[in-house]
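[stage:ingest] chain + small molecule (erythose-4-phosphate)
[stage:ingest] validated
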Amino acid sequence: MKFFVDTAEIDAIAELNELGMVDGVTTNPSLIMKSGRDILEVTKEICDLVDGPVSAEVVSLEADEMIAEGRKLATIADNIAVKVPLTWAGLKACKTLSDEGNMVNVTLCFSANQALIAAKAGATFISPFIGRLDDINLDGMELIADIRDIYDNYGFETQILAASIRSVNHMSDAAKIGADVATAPPAVIKKLADHPLTDAGLAAFMKDWEKTGQKIL
Ligand code: E4P
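[stage:predict] done
[stage:export] tokens:
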């Protein structure tokens, strides 16, 4: 499973990128707002830093304007994936922009039918939002499994980009189901390395090592 980082914070992306943890980046209007940065400038910096796809989201609601915005975002770098919402206008924009050779990430997906129609429209990535479904007592992970089945049944090449990930369990569950990509905040990615038994085991080893009086270096 590829790891995308769900943030527009350059320092956080750079830190994880140095460890080889960043296969791509996703942003959205809220993340751009939180960064306090200009969308074109910060997206360019992210694209310079990361080799993989960098999602940058359009903000118009009409197809023609989305297409114009998408074309402009795509000029930032070769690794831009234009992000469009899962509306009819967004699907029209998806079809046009993907026919023009751009990567397109269709976002705000909350049902299997939405994922099916995005694949028909030529989406490179479909972004089902797990956490936001869990927030309203629905099962976000069940949606990932349903989309996996549907795409595999028909050989759709659209990649399942598990989004709105809030916990480490979301990451392992998405990986078990076979999501192609998971996008998560930097804090969740960092927590993947944590385990209390690792901490306890290491503390015990250090205590015993001290008793030997030895040094390696
Ligand atoms: C994905 O592309 C979205 O930017 C993101 O995962 C949304 O996450 P949230 O529901 O935690 O805001």
